[in-house]
Amino acid sequence: MSINKFNHEGYYDPTPYEALRNVSREEKAASKAAFRPLVYICSPFSGDTEGNIKRAQDFCRFALKKGNIPLAPHLMFPQFMDDKNEEERDLAIFMDIILMGKCQEVWVLGDVISKGMSIEIEKAKKRRQPIRYFNKDFKEVDSL
Fold first, then answer.
1. DSSP E strands, the chain
2. N or C: which end of the chain has fewer CB within 10 A?
3. At what angle do helices 86-100 and 115-127 cross, to 10 degrees?
4. Per residue, what are the HEC states of 73-108?
């Protein structure tokens, strides 16, 4: 719908024209600001669990500040699943892969790729999902 500078009688009417233009501009800006891509956070969990959880939380905060919605299932699933139980770990990785498929990008953090991370990265490559790599200081790098 275009905004007309003239009223219904054909006379130039700048006041409503400017008001409607401003409303239209604000609506466009609001719709652009509302979009936030969903990004899958791929980072280590096992090993130094406490430190890895903290780094994953910091990475999620980083992704959020960059205008994304971070998804880090490895921060959620251990709340009710046992990472040391092989069957539950396999099920968690399966669910991770399902959730990763809903994301626009996969963000990989750290200098070390764990077994679980390598499974996720390979699946993302097969799906041709965009993968971005970040070092431990959250600086983007070509690959790890």
1. 38-42, 69-71, 105-109, 131-134, 140-141
2. N
3. 30
4. HHHHHHHCCCCCCHHHHHHHHHHHHHHHCCCCEEEE
pTM here? 0.75
List b or e across 2-34, with b for residues whose CB sees 16 or more CB atoms inside 10 angstroms. Answer: eeeeeeeeeeeeeeeeeeeeeeeeeeeeeeeee
Nearest to 103 by CA among 130, 139, 74, 142: 130
Per-residue confidence of the chain (144 residues) as pLDDT tens digits? 578 788 788 888 888 888 888 888 887 776 666 789 999 999 999 888 999 999 999 999 999 999 999 999 999 999 999 989 999 999 999 999 999 999 999 999 988 899 999 999 999 999 999 999 999 899 999 876
Whole-angstrom Cα distance, residue 59 to residue 49? Answer: 15
65 in Cβ contact with 80 (< 8 Å): no
**Angle in degrees, CA 78, 80, 83, rounded to 5:** 40
- Identify whether the C-beta of residue 99 lies closer than 8 Å to the C-beta of residue 20: no
Query: DSSP code of 127?
Result: H
Q: CA–CA separation, 115 vs 98, rounded Å?
A: 17
